[in-house]
């Protein structure tokens, strides 16, 4: 647990806006724009020097925030089918599939090929109906239950072999396939899948993850329940903003990788979008609107290191070198000299969650923000 401490208010009048950037429709705006997660190798959870019995644990001598509870992340009971009975109904799909696809009114064996498809199934309590997955992040088990993460992985990609994909899918006997529109998709893969079961393709762009959530829930026969999931995220975002007053805090969001070291996190990722949704203040070099970076005004003087803020969330995980990369990055002079690091206001968070693709990941990000944004990392 963290000890609560007041946020340090930044003085105004240094060439930056006196209020944080917000979308005009408030908290709901960034959610609609894109409140919106592939795998072996060490999870940040495994990068601990001194494990403790309560979350968070420790990684590379720093705080590893673990608000997500994998075994509690899925709804305990399935959302009721909104179109019970036999027969089919039409739902929307995107290229390279047909624009309208006939799907079972109440599917019973779902092949969820894409992180968003898996996340939404979990959020709707349909995890027991999922027979196979694809596209889950490397460390998905930090927020999704083991039985779901352990399902057969078809590893569908833009260059997947048509025959291999079709054979693997056929063996799972799905009555519905929901697949992410991957980069440079091969239309032949979608056609092959559609010969096995009705196949709905959705857009996995993080900026449109809410649209994807609605489309996936509709394919699953639960469109109203999908809308309720997004309303719940909006309510949680508002509660988080009210409880933590993030607008009074400069929140730095950085990513730690083997290839890039420590860099400012991309604005079109779930964590950045959620910070925007709760109205978090951001350092001048990290300001965003609708998932796009906003350059500081020309007359604005530089203020310290672009990585620094009142509090820092460092996104870690996702590749084999995560642990070593983090240890090396957190030992550099540049990092240790940041104000937030010296004040013990830096928190390590899971990449699988903060670069997620659905309501389950979004709720976990909000929990991380709630539990840390006004906190101080304990010694250890």
Précis, in short:
This protein has 380 residues and is α/β, with parallel strands linked by helices. Helix content is 30%, strand content 17%.
Would you write up a description of this structure?
- By secondary structure, the protein is α/β, with parallel strands linked by helices.
- It is 30% helix and 17% strand.
- It contains 13 helices and 16 strands.
- The strands form five sheets. The chain has a six-stranded mixed β-sheet with strand order 2-3-15-14-10-11.
- Strand 2 (57-59) and strand 3 form a beta hairpin.
- Helix 1 (28-34) packs antiparallel against helix 8 (270-277) and helix 6 runs antiparallel to helix 7 (223-244).
- The longest helix is centred in the middle third of the chain and has 22 residues, at 223-244.
């Amino acid at each position: 647990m963290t000890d609560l401490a007041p946020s340090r208010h930044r003085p105004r009048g240094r060439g930056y806006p006196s209020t944080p950037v917000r979308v005009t429709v408030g908290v709901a705006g960034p959610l609609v724009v894109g409140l919106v997660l592939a795998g072996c190798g060490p999870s940040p959870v495994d990068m601990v020097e001194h494990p403790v019995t309560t979350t968070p644990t420790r990684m590379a001598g720093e705080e590893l925030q673990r608000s997500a509870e994998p075994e509690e992340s899925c709804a305990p009971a399935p959302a009721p089918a909104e179109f019970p009975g036999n027969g089919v109904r039409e739902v929307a799909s995107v290229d390279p599939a047909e624009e309208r696809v006939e799907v079972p009114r109440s599917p019973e064996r779902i092949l969820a090929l894409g992180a968003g498809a898996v996340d939404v199934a979990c959020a709707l309590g349909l995890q027991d109906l999922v027979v196979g997955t694809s596209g889950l992040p490397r460390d998905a088990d930090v927020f999704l239950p083991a039985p779901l993460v352990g399902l057969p992985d078809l590893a569908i990609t833009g260059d997947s072999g048509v025959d291999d994909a079709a054979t693997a899918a056929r063996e799972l006997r799905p009555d519905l396939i929901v697949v992410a529109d991957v980069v440079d998709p091969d239309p032949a893969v979608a056609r092959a899948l559609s010969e096995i079961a009705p196949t709905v393709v959705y857009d996995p762009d993080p900026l449109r993850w809410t649209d994807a959530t609605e489309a996936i829930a509709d394919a699953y026969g639960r469109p109203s329940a999908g809308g309720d999931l997004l309303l719940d995220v909006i309510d949680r975002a508002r509660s988080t903003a009210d409880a933590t007053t993030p607008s009074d805090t400069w929140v730095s969001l950085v990513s730690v990788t083997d290839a890039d070291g420590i860099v400012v996190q991309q604005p079109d990722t779930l964590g950045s979008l959620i910070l925007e949704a709760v109205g978090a203040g951001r350092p001048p070099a990290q300001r965003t609107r609708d998932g796009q970076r906003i350059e500081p005004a020309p007359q604005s003087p530089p203020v310290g290191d672009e990585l620094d803020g009142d509090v820092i969330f460092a996104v870690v995980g996702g590749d084999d070198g995560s642990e070593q990369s983090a240890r090396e990055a957190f030992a550099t002079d540049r990092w240790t000299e940041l104000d937030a690091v010296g004040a013990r206001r830096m928190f390590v968070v899971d990449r699988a969650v903060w670069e997620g693709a659905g309501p389950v990941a979004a709720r976990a990000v909000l929990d991380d923000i709630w539990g840390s944004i006004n906190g101080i990392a304990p010694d250890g």
